[in-house]
Specification:
Layout (H helix, E strand, L loop, with lengths): L10 E7 L5 H15 L5 E7 L4 E8 L15 E8 H4 L5 H12 L7 H11 L15 H7 L10
Parallel strand pairs: 1-2
Antiparallel strand pairs: 1-3, 3-4
Helix pairs in contact: 1-3, 3-4
Length: about 160
């Protein structure tokens, strides 16, 4: 049996671990992206999974395929990993997620206070007392950050 349907691009799929109970976090990010990008995105999907997964993947037209055609027409598309909790070290700040999405679908768009905040973060050097963003903060994170190890909730 085969099914087919039209996919509206850009499509953002938020894949999240239900065993880790990241449903609300995934829904929050989806709501924030819809609020910011509204009709600039074709759809946002919540994809339940297991195994400590939390990824944001965007399906979008290749840069040379972008033009004034409808979001529903057939086109060559690319999947881009916008955020992967295991690679990027935890969950994104909302402003960072919006920045990464914007850089793919509307690179010239001004995100206002988000852009100013991100520039401020770059200018200010981190102090020695601040923990590194990639360092695990708990035993749970240590176990989950290891590539082939599931979190305790997913075993």
């Amino acid at each position: 049996m085969e099914a087919s349907s039209k996919v509206r691009v850009p499509r953002i799929a938020i894949e999240f671990c239900t065993q880790c109970k990241w449903n609300l976090r995934a829904a929050y990010y989806a709501q924030e992206l819809l609020q910011t990008f509204s009709t600039s995105v074709g759809e946002i999907a919540l994809v339940p999974a297991t195994g400590g997964i939390f990824t944001v993947i965007m399906t979008h037209r290749n840069s040379e395929g972008q033009g004034e055609s409808s979001t529903e027409t057939a086109a060559e598309v690319t999947n881009t990993i916008v955020w992967d909790r295991k690679i990027d070290g935890g969950f994104p700040e909302t402003k960072e997620l919006k920045n990464r999405v914007r850089n793919i679908i509307e690179p010239n768009r001004d995100l206002g206070h988000i852009d100013r905040s991100l520039k401020k973060d770059i200018v200010q050097p981190a102090t020695a007392e601040e923990p590194s963003k990639t360092e695990p903060t708990s035993q749970h994170d240590v176990q989950v950050n290891q590539r082939n190890v599931n979190c305790e909730d997913c075993k």
